[in-house]
Design a protein that fits this description.
Layout: H1 3-12, E1 16-20, H2 24-32, E2 37-40, H3 44-47, H4 59-72, E3 77-81, H5 91-103, E4 108-110, H6 118-126, E5 131-136, H7 142-145, H8 155-171, E6 175-179, H9 183-192, E7 197-200, E8 208-211, H10 213-216, H11 234-251
Parallel strand pairs: 1-2, 1-8, 2-3, 3-4, 4-5, 5-6, 6-7, 7-8
Helix pairs in contact: 2-4, 5-6, 6-8
The chain binds 3-methyl-2-oxobutanoic acid.
């Protein structure tokens, strides 16, 4: 999947399905399942590293995981999620760090924020690095917003989001993630924009959807947001398997004769 093909989906009304992945094993499974776009999300701070939020994730962490995913994929579009403070300080630093993602194997990067990030988007796209925007609930601003809350419910907040997506589109993003906002607002933004909108907790009218892999597989159950549909129950399967393994080691039924060398 290349950027022009990704964008063509909107023109022909074909929905885009995106999922996060953080390592080679899952990246391979995602691609084998026929999904063509992988986001190496900074959500790995929570689901892989065990932190309460994404703020402690570093460039080195993200590059490490991006390399693993890029190495394992054949044709999927790999998008690297720029971590907190890797693009906020200056346009120059944003550009340098975006370049490091490309060198690690990502074909594009994602940054959070609206109008204030337009100059970063312009600089990166001018240098040939495709950028995905991300507005609405932006987890890297959790200290300012005071928590993970639905955005755009009031007229003023909704108007600010409209201005944000317009600025991002003008600056050259190839797509925009809309996170946690009323479905009607996401619908209007989707109609307003010529680039695809990718929803997460933003209802069914977006041009595509993105979910955190561990949420959709039922692996991460510390907190399951309303918008997540667990398509599998891998945590309970893993628990059962591990308990059985322990029981069978303790009872002496593992390993059996066929699992032993002679
Ligand atoms: O980090 C992440 O996984 C994300 C998506 C959920 C949009 O930003």
């Amino acid at each position: 999947m290349k950027i022009p093909e990704f964008q063509h989906h909107k023109q022909v009304g074909k929905k885009l399905t995106i999922v996060t992945a953080y390592d080679a094993m899952f990246a391979r499974i995602v691609e084998q399942a026929g999904l063509e776009v992988i986001l190496v999300g900074d959500s790995l701070g929570m689901v892989v590293q065990g932190h309460p939020n994404t703020l402690t994730v570093t460039m080195d962490d993200m590059l490490y995981h991006t390399r693993m995913v890029a190495r394992a994929t054949q044709s999927a579009l790999v998008i690297g999620d720029m971590p907190f403070m890797s693009y906020q300080i200056s346009v120059e630093e944003a550009l340098r760090n975006a370049g490091r993602f490309v060198q690690a194997g990502a074909a594009a990067v994602k940054i959070e924020g609206g109008q204030i990030m337009a100059d970063r988007v312009r600089a990166m796209t001018r240098m040939g690095i495709p950028v995905m925007g991300h507005v609405g609930m932006t987890p890297q601003s959790v200290n300012q917003s005071g928590g993970y809350k639905v955005t755009g419910k009031g007229a003023e907040d909704a108007r600010r989001i409209v201005e944000d997506v317009k600025a991002l589109e003008q600056a050259g993003v190839f797509a925009i993630v809309l996170e946690c906002m009323p479905a009607l607002l996401a619908k209007e933004l989707t109609e307003l924009l010529s680039v695809p909108t990718i929803g997460i907790g933003a209802g069914p009218h977006c041009d595509g959807q993105v979910l955190v892999l561990y949420d959709l597989l039922g692996l991460f159950d510390d907190f399951v947001p309303k918008y997540v549909r667990p398509y599998a129950q891998l945590k309970s399967e893993a628990l059962q398997a591990l308990k059985r393994y322990r029981d069978e080691v303790e009872s002496g039924t593992f390993p059996a004769d066929r699992e032993s060398y002679h």
